[in-house]
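> tool_call: predict_assembly(chains=two)
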Amino acid sequence: MERASPPGERAGESEGRSPSVEIDLRDVRRWSHEAMATVYEVYAVHADLTYAAQAAQAAFELLDRLERELSRFLPNSDITRINHLDAGASTRVAPSTLECLGIARHMFDLTGGAFDVSIGTGLASLELDHDESVVRATTRGVRIDLGGIGKGYAVDLMAELLEEWEVPMALVHGGFSSMLALEPPAARPGWPLTLSDPADPSRRLERLTVRQTALGASGVRKRDHIVDPRTGDPVRGRRAAWVTLPRPHGGAAAAVADALTTASMLLGPDEIDALCRNSPGLEAWILDDAGLLHFGEQKSGD
Amino acid sequence: MADEPKKLDRRDVLKGLSTLPALGLFGYAWQRQRTYQQARVTEVAAAAEAPAGLQVINVALLGAGAQGQVLTDSMLRITGLRVRAVCDIWTEYNQKRVVNSLKRFKHEPNAYEDYREMLDKEKELDAVVIATPDFWHAQHTIDCLKAGKHVYCEKEMSNTLEGARRMVAAQRETGKLLQIGHQRRSNPRYRHCYDKILREAHMLGRIVTVYGQWNRGVTPDLGAPDRYVVPQARLTQYGFKDMHQFRNWRWYKGKGGGPIVDLGSHQIDIYGWFLGTNPSHVMASGGNLYYDPKTHEWYDTVMAVYDYDTPLGPAKAYYSTQTTNGSQGYFENFMGDQGTLLISESEVNYAGQLYRDPNAPAWDEWIQKGYVSAPKEQETKAKSDSGAIADVRESVAPDQHTVPVTLRDPYHQPHLQNFFDAVRGKATLNCPAEEAYQTAVAVLKVNDAIEAKAPVAFTPGDFKV
């Protein structure tokens, strides 16, 4: 853990680099699509823009399918059917739904319950049968809300699709809070990104240059929208949290980053520090009234 | 463990990490691998474990594109099915994707490029689910029926009425079941509206006008990953001039019918069903206003007006579809002299709202029977004094009612379930070929009316085979 330097004072950072950033990012094209109550975007650099647009469209169609399965707001989604299960009843779900729930449960274990898609209603009472792609409830009343992980999971699958289409120089995000940077535009070390104070977006806290990296952001600009599943109380005091982690091949890094960033709003600094020290490559930032705290080995920064 | 809020301390985090040494942060990757490996070694026999006494139905999927995948997703949630074969000419991509997803659910389908080879080899098939491009429907359906299979075929029945007629004839000749994929016909909300609200309770009074639409935003033409392009010889063999046409056949004359057929057919089907009759005339305007006509031969924008002579009197129904702005999506709005029903297949938008004309007979009986939700504010008669005619109070909002039926399953599941129930002899088809043929006549004639720039008249005989 280190108390980060004030913005603009990091060693080696120079405002003079910005113009060159602007020039070779001109080739980046962007496609947008509304889903999961936010706007998703695909940024890509590709010689054939029609082809890249078709790849982005295919990614958005995948996203729409995932929303139909994962949204708790749709009466006929997998998640809604799970939320209506009586004790002992089960329902068959898409493999992707089950995989997302599996990651969510793993994150529950990893964060000691700080990340809980059931918000204290009993995630452990759901049996996930990966062989039959079935979810079984051992008690009734479990309420799943994948709001803290579903966006990242969708971003992971969209990125896999773009790679299948051989559009490797791309960045995908859902509402800017779940982001996955794939290969950067040619001749660049990574995709240039910033972390800013949610209370004052013009106040830049960090500049990152990343490739094959998942990023998650969480904040309380929208008042009290994160509830501590362990106490039921809304989170106060901490204003924002960010997480970055490297993307392993075939892994769901954006889903994990999404979950960990929500957990980082709740965990104490010692706990976040322990997580980062035990998880090579994981970096985290939290912003509270005292300023910005950084955890993990600095890799992503310029 | 989570029945009561759990207090977390650092030991929990550290314990979480230490008890999961093999998992760590990237345990999900391990889990993915495990799921995949287990799926590969599991016995096939367990695939279609059906409740005792339920006949297992052996099914093939013919056409594994976007719609075939939607139907597969639904079939995977229906008990008592064993998917034995998947046939698609895009062996490099869609065929492989669907086979792999079926294997994750422990089906072991054989993969085919040629449906005739599939019919030759798969002797145990009971039924075939067809989701190929429209211009293949007639031949695929007829050959499957003649091979002794029951068929569920996606709408539109065919891109030509001649093809659709041959499908009806083949169904009659073989005596096999032929269900057409107008899935709203099995949607519990639509069925409730038809059976209870319209037929039994006549809550709308006499329906005089109908309005419906499907608006869709601009999308790029469908593409394909470069590495999975279908070889030209195979495309030619199956009637496609190139990969673009293969992916975007819906826009081409001789292959599909354009948005009025792809989208409008679902809803114009409901017009005829709910009004209880077929149209007598249609006039329509359409054009290619936006997309490149070289790759979009059909109309991207269509507006059509039908005349109906319903049992209760004449009615007019307007339908529009456009593909350049998705605002307000899709719905059907039935307007009678006593009420309005706004309905759509979507569980989110226009999922079933009822408006009662203030002068219409009260709906108390239907509210008590649960046919329609109770209004938010109850009638304002004086409850405390039976001699008074009204209670003076703060202003009351007009009644608002909804259709109290929700679909919990994927949209196509009830219609497929109805088909498989019928295969088992436990149901009658909700959209048999003769019914769907009538919709095909009403819909395909819209394109004729646009081309003729003049109204097209129907005779009752036009709807019969």
